[in-house]
């Protein structure tokens, strides 16, 4: 699979949806990410939409007014389902067909459909729901900068374990507690124990953190016992979203040996509502992590000839915070970090190939996240644990408040977008969550 | 919740299904476990059944012939579904009502229904399927003997980590690769590295193992953010089954730091088909693990007054093996271990309360397994890793074959049953799986 661009990426394309032509929108006609929504405050069935500027193109309505009738029946069924699972299962070629169809439908040089007012709903009038029903959620650990920074804090003498440069390390996450952007996050309780404490106590986490991650949804799955080879891996990726893997660091430090993180993570994981297809991201591919001469090359089952040219994706990611006090004072969100997804040690294809290499079956709608995205540069660390050095160097907010970890009332906002000379900006929108008291 | 017995446990009860009255059956009228099946070789929809002797009582058929009409509508709907999820969600009181109804229906001193031949299907003519759709699968580590034995092998200087006696250690497992008893298990490939190897290789696991576990299905779930208190925990347990958590020990040793087991486990987990309700197990409750004076008592959120009398369940568990050569020679399965579930360090209620203590939402149909069940006694170790001391002391099979770990063609059979003077035997049936080459 090569990462080719086609007419849908043409930067000169404009839409008759005016807000999609604004240079700062995350959702120009070149993006066309999929999501699931219902009208705000209604109890109507969830339906599939496509973000276009500040509007949502309602695919169920498009179907009803006959705008999808040229598409294969399977695609029509997928577009009118109540989540994206069926669309995820049809395969990347079919999704391409749909993408081109929607691009044609929304282009300013095509006749605006008479039904335009019916098939659009303002994003501000919609409740954005989880895009898919996720059977299994897996979280990787694919940033070597994150692994090294965190390793230093937990194991100063042994920051990066010997397997890291060979194994795309991951653990199974909790699927039930994946929540949509905007859902409030209740501070978890749990066992925690400071080194000087004789015994643990059970109380609210005092070291609540976010983790900036990028996730992808599995498109077509594989049968149990049938690994997906690395050179076919991207065909099984439907699209990407932002993931906030909330973490109770004190709970994590006490519980994680020897079987890994459990309750420190399973209380909530927030994802952004719009799933940006791999195809929309084609212009923003970049070389995979460049390993030094001294570092091992990936084993053959993790090696792809595309890595050197376009194994990575250059997504600019940032994390902002709004404290209760800042919100009260109507202050702008304060940026905690900014960095690129382009320098992950393992690519998405490597994650997927590794995951299925033992025969494990992946299913349409499964969510696979990258692990915290941290870069080499100062200011690009994707969680407070790293930024504040486990709380020892608190961040000062514009109000003068200090943050070692998250306080009740803090809202964390993840953002991501791709920008490149000669192409329209393709963004992910936001992934938000506010901390409630325990 | 106390563990009371009622008329359904009466050892004098007999069924008009003759095979249910045999003293060695796992499925007397006192058991009535639930499962999901279809006629062998058919493509008919899956339906719910109850094991009775060597027969299955077909609940859909019972409904059709009017034998369930006295039950609340919700229960009737649950009995005619294609898996147990709805029945799991109705709550333990409703399941009790159903259990009493089925007990009445099957008693030898009641009129045998005219439809008896219609509502029964021989177990040998049925394909037994997964009992539920499992959203999340969690695996605990609740046997201190297992944790200590394994700890010695992986960390000789530090076998039991400091958190063990405080935290019911667990990790998220893979839900997609849970398979029903009888499904063949393909030997996984993966990265492995012997200490003397300069780098890992990717090849078939050479240290394939089973793990004898007991699992339970979550009945009524909880809302995200609403922990289940320990004294209500058992109300959320629908019933139990046997679990074989297949493990590639070489893959595990290399991958598990720092985030826990992943591909070493996710290639397959086999469960037994019949779900034995907690109510059926009431006569076999036993005291929870007795902690020594020197050991910490469980923290308050994990303490239940019932522990001393009946926190545990005395299930006798055994593991047998049949090699290809033994099968060829028509030899009986060879027993590898035998021990009781009664001496787990953490109770099922503690596992469930801990799991939800951070607010994590459990859903009907979620599977929570105990971790390998090993006892203190010689011969009660629940996996080959322990029995053969990581392969250094192979087991000799009756054919003279040696087993450090599983060979292709080996079939592993888990069995479990409760037996006690004055009560009918209540069994789990078998959990089987045969290893196929990679």
TrEMBL record, chains A, B:
Residues 181-202 are annotated as: Disordered. Gene3D superfamilies: Fumarylacetoacetase, N-terminal domain (2.30.30.230), Fumarylacetoacetase-like, C-terminal domain (3.90.850.10). Pfam families: FAA_hydrolase (PF01557), FAA_hydrolase_N (PF09298). Its cofactor is Ca(2+); Mg(2+). Transmembrane segments: none annotated. Residues 30-131 form the Fumarylacetoacetase N-terminal domain. One of its GO terms (biological process) is L-tyrosine catabolic process. GO terms for molecular function: fumarylacetoacetase activity; metal ion binding. Ca(2+) binds at residues 139, 211, 213, 245. Pathway: Amino-acid degradation; L-phenylalanine degradation; acetoacetate and fumarate from L-phenylalanine: step 6/6. Its EC number is 3.7.1.2. The keyword Glycosyltransferase does not apply. Keywords: Calcium, Hydrolase, Magnesium, Metal-binding, Phenylalanine catabolism, Tyrosine catabolism. The active site is at 146 (proton acceptor). Coiled coil: none annotated. Residues 140-434 form the Fumarylacetoacetase-like C-terminal domain. It comes from the Bacteria. Mg(2+) binds at residues 245, 265, 269. Substrate binds at residues 141, 155, 252, 256, 372. This is fumarylacetoacetase. It comes from Chlorogloeopsis fritschii PCC 6912.
């Amino acid at each position: 699979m090569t990462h080719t661009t086609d007419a849908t990426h043409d930067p000169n394309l404009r839409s008759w949806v005016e807000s999609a032509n604004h240079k700062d929108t995350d959702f120009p006609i070149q993006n066309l990410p999929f999501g699931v929504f219902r009208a705000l405050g209604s109890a109507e069935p969830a339906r599939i939409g496509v973000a276009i500027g500040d509007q949502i193109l309602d695919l169920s309505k498009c179907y009803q007014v006959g705008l999808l009738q040229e598409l294969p029946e399977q695609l029509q069924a997928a577009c009118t389902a109540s989540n994206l699972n069926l669309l995820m299962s049809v395969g990347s070629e079919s999704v391409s067909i749909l993408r081109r169809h929607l691009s044609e439908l929304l282009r300013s040089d095509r006749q605006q459909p008479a039904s335009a007012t019916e098939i659009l709903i303002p994003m501000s009038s919609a409740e954005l729901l989880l895009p898919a029903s996720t059977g299994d959620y897996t979280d990787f650990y694919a940033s070597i900068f994150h692994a090294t920074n965190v390793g230093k804090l937990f194991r100063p003498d042994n920051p990066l374990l010997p397997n890291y440069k060979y194994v795309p390390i991951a653990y199974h996450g909790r699927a039930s507690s994946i929540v949509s952007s905007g859902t409030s996050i209740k501070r978890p309780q749990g066992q925690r124990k400071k080194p000087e404490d004789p015994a643990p106590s059970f109380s609210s986490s005092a070291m609540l953190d976010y983790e900036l991650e990028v996730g992808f949804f599995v498109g077509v799955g594989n049968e149990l016992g049938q690994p997906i080879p690395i050179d076919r891996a991207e065909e099984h990726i439907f699209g990407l979203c932002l993931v906030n893997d909330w973490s109770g660091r004190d709970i994590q430090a006490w519980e994680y040996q020897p079987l890994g993180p459990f309750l420190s993570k399973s209380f909530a994981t927030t994802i952004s509502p719009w799933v940006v297809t791999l195809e929309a991201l084609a212009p923003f591919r970049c070389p995979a992590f460049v390993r030094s001469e001294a570092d091992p090359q990936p084993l053959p089952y993790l090696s792809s000839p595309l890595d050197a040219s376009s194994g990575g994706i250059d997504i600019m990611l940032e994390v902002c915070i709004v404290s209760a006090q800042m919100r009260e004072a109507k202050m702008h969100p304060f940026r905690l970090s900014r960095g690129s997804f382009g320098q992950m040690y393992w690519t998405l294809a490597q994650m997927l190939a590794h995951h299925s290499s033992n025969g494990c079956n992946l299913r349409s709608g499964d969510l696979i996240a990258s692990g915290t995205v941290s870069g080499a540069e100062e200011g690009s660390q994707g969680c407070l644990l790293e930024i504040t050095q486990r709380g020892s160097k608190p961040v000062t907010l514009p109000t003068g408040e200090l943050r070692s970890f998250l306080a009740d009332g803090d809202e964390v906002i993840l953002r991501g977008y791709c920008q490149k000379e000669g192409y329209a900006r393709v963004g992910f929108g936001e992934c938000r969550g506010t901390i409630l008291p325990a």
